[in-house]
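Hi V.,

Quick status before I head out on leave. The structure for the redesign project is tokenized and pasted below; the design run finished overnight.
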């Protein structure tokens, strides 16, 4: 069943070329980029900026829409499919912190070569 709220994903890269990932405690559990749902009537660009701040404390500046797609993945709201918007966060400020420990076990920058290992693949 299609979720009536779009989902957004934030791809944040450090100056060292590492990517911000989190370990989610809520569906879909596991290692992921920062993500969430757009609220009612909220456009995806505003949603990704809001979600990034709510979950990490980072303040997004310029963002770039990389991908818009339909994605079959269960979510915490009980739906199986989403319209997903993946954004590259081009500029940001602050120091990432886990602001939702009930939903996120940990949050850190990882070397891009290590991300497949975190996701269950080979490094």
């Amino acid at each position: 069943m299609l979720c009536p709220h779009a989902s957004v994903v934030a791809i944040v890269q450090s100056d060292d070329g590492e990517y911000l990932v989190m370990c989610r405690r809520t569906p879909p559990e596991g290692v992921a980029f920062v993500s969430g749902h757009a609220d009612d009537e909220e456009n995806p660009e505003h949603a990704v900026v809001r979600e990034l701040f709510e979950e990490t404390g980072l303040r997004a500046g310029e963002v770039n829409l990389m991908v818009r797609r339909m994605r079959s993945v269960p979510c915490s709201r009980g739906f199986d499919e989403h319209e997903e918007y993946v954004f590259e966060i081009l500029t940001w400020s602050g120091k990432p912190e886990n602001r939702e420990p009930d939903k996120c076990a940990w949050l850190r920058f990882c070397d891009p070569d290590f991300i497949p290992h975190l996701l269950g693949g080979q490094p």
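Above is the designed sequence. Strands lie at 7-12, 19-24, 30-32, 34-37, 59-60, 63-72, 81-89, 92-93, 104-110.

G. will cover questions while I'm gone.

Best,
W.
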